[in-house]
Amino acid sequence: MRIEAREMAEPRSSEPVVLLNEVFPGDTNALDTLFGGRLMSIMDTAAGMAASQFAHKEFVTVSVDALKFKRPAYQGDVIRTIARVVWTSRRTVAVLVRSCRMTRSDWDPEEICSGFFFMVAIDESMCPTEVPQFTATTDEEKELWDSAQRARDAMH
């Protein structure tokens, strides 16, 4: 049992998760732009994958910081979503998720939405369970940690 506890003391992976999705006709409104709800679903999926990769546990979304939709994505665009754990508490991780649109002709990413997704680790009985702790070491990581903490504080 001690070995298991020691294993979970450190994150399994802090690498970002990258998802690529194409915007199909069924994903768009009458203006051929991506539904905001469809983008939120893509972002939530990426957040859950990043959290699971980080802790090797199951997670559920507990809250989402105010998402900022900066510009539309259009039918035929490729959506690149990058999610990474940037903050932890005892049972919760904050995942920063950024989505960009890219066209197949230039693949030049243009950010369309970003925000923090707060995920709670659960066990097989759907009860919250502890997670390994993220340690911010670089200036960028420390800044993101502080931003996630402010977002969480604003929700309480």
Structural overview:
It is a single chain. It contains 3 helices and 6 strands. Strands 1, 2, 3, 4, 5 and 6 form a 6-stranded antiparallel sheet that branches. β5 (92-102) and β6 form a beta hairpin. The chain is globular and about 45 Å long. It has one domain (2-155): Hotdog Thioesterase (Thiol Ester Dehydrase, Chain A). By secondary structure, the protein is of the alpha+beta class. Helix content is 28%, strand content 32%. The N and C termini lie far apart (35 Å).
Q: Please, what is the average pLDDT?
A: 92
Q: Helical residue percent?
A: 25-40%
Class inferred from helices and paired strands: alpha+beta
Largest sheet features: 6 strands, antiparallel
Low-confidence stretches: 1-7
* Approximate shape: globular
CATH topology: Thiol Ester Dehydrase, Chain A
Calculate the terminal CA-CA distance, rounded to whole Å.
Answer: 35 Å
- Highest-level CATH class: Alpha Beta
Q: Determine Rg (CA atoms, Å).
A: 17 Å
The count of helical stretches stands at: 3
Domain module tally: 1
Strand content: 25-35%
For the record, the CATH architecture stands as Roll
How many β-strands, per DSSP? 6
How are helices and strands ordered from N to C?
A: HEHEEEEEH
What's the name of the CATH homologous superfamily? Hotdog Thioesterase
Secondary-structure topology with pairs:
Layout: H1 2-7, E1 17-22, H2 36-55, E2 58-64, E3 68-69, E4 78-88, E5 92-102, E6 110-122, H3 139-155
Antiparallel strand pairs: 1-4, 2-6, 3-6, 4-5, 5-6
